[in-house]
Amino acid sequence: MFCTNCGKKSEGKQKFCTMCDTPFSDDIASKENTFGKAKSLAPNTTTWIKKINYSKLILNKYVAILVGVILVVWMLSGDNSGGGIKAPLPAPVQQTSDDTIEIRPITPAVSLTNGTILKKSSVYLRGDGKLVIKNGTSLDAVAKLIRGGTSVLTVYIKANSNYTMPKISEGIYWLVFAQGLDWDSTTQKFRRN
After folding, report:
1. What single-letter DSSP state applies at residue 67?
2. Is 64 helix (H, G, I), strand (E, B) or coil?
């Protein structure tokens, strides 16, 4: 007897083909094979369909689609980082205008003379101490000597100038600074910087 599926010759009275397990006759449809499961006796004429691994086929299809999408996105992005010829930048173009620009001269900054005293409280200026302040910057400064939360002496020191505070009484003081240009006597602040 020859198997209808694979064509192998079978010796004796076997119920299934020893090569592909195809049943030889219709009378064993309800019987079980050696593994305890009922065998289907439907004719197996499309063996090559059984041999296809559909999970691998589907996986390969998705991988191919993914690679295709990445390739299309890469081509459309115009990314030249991987080398190749890059187009040179266009030369800058100067635009001319008929508009005239009026440049206003900046008014000179108001500056007080070096050592101008802005505020003085002589209560703490009766001692033998003195404080030398050197303004080594390019900005004018206002120095304020503070004791007990009140201003003892506030003085204007010009850029790159020195000032000596005389007759300071013994005690603990704070010295604070403000720097800038263009002194405003009304607000007691610098207008610039």
Report:
1. H
2. helix
- Rg (C-alpha) for the chain, rounded Å, is 50
- Please determine, for residue 131, whether its predicted confidence score (pLDDT) is greater than 80: yes
Strand 129-135 to 161-168 pairing: antiparallel
Residues 6+ apart with CB under 8 A from 157: 114, 115, 133, 135, 140, 141, 142, 143, 163
pLDDT at site 27: 43
Contacts for 77 with CB less than 8 Å, ≥ 6 apart:
none
pLDDT per residue over 97-118, tens digit each?
A: 666 666 655 677 788 889 998 8
Q: At 143, phi and psi to the nearest 5?
A: -105, 135
Q: Give the pLDDT score at 193.
A: 76
Q: Where are the beta strands (DSSP E) in the chain?
A: 116-120, 129-135, 140-147, 150-157, 161-168, 174-184, 189-192
* pLDDT for 66: 87
